[in-house]
Predict the 3D structure of the following.
Amino acid sequence: MSEFEVKRKDIDDISILYLKGYLDAHTASDFESALDTLVCEERVRIIVNLSELVYISSAGLGVFMGFIEDIRKKNGDIKMAEPSKKVMRVFELLGFQVLYQIFENEQEAVEKYNTSKK
Amino acid sequence: MTHKVKNYKLKIPSDTENLEIIRKFVAGIARKVGFKNDDIHKIELAVDEACTNVIQHAYKNQKKQSIDIAIKLDFQKFSIVITDKGEGFDFQEIDIPQMDEYLAELRVGGLGIYLMKTLMDEVNYKKTNGKNQVRMVKYLLDKDKKSKNK
């Protein structure tokens, strides 16, 4: 069974999800639930920290795609931070860097939200 | 030089929880025959996508069906054949999204076949005697022999 874990940390109105392990068709629903919970709580300024994510397939990519429109309509965003080279290569293959802001470290993503605060 | 053909097989229930076992099986063989990390990752991702399609679309998430994975190394040609007895589809007719349009429209799903065709050197599909077969090829060294099948 694929090992996968999602942890969450809230900093003011920003929520950070830490993904760990393998994100595939078996584990994508865990990530989907975590994002769903945030949307239900109207916490839509989201950072996904990928530093411990070792693998992603299209099932995982589809979760990002499935939420982004709704979250942006609510004036939120999903920003990504600290992807490994392996994960980043998959994003690049699909042009995800065009659609999502991807930061080398989490703090930069937090600052990006803070500077765009109204 | 001796021409040695190597064959490897795995038969496994069509359950997404087995994707990890499938990836390990394929990656282990790819490593053993001499692929580097970057290509091993491409092969395991392409096989994951193909098997996910089988589980979710051909077998519609029925976990008691089975998937057959056969790997053959013939000289520099690493072929993976994935066979199922589920509902088939015309692989050639699946629209490969233009990624800029795809992202602009924020469509969900349908990325798997795009990835398979992008990651592997050859991908094709056939249906015979009620079986669906996806065959993917990656060449081990000789990049000149690569022919993109997109």
DSSP finds five helices and five strands in chain A. Helices of chain A lie at 28-40, 58-73, 85-94, 96-99, 106-115.
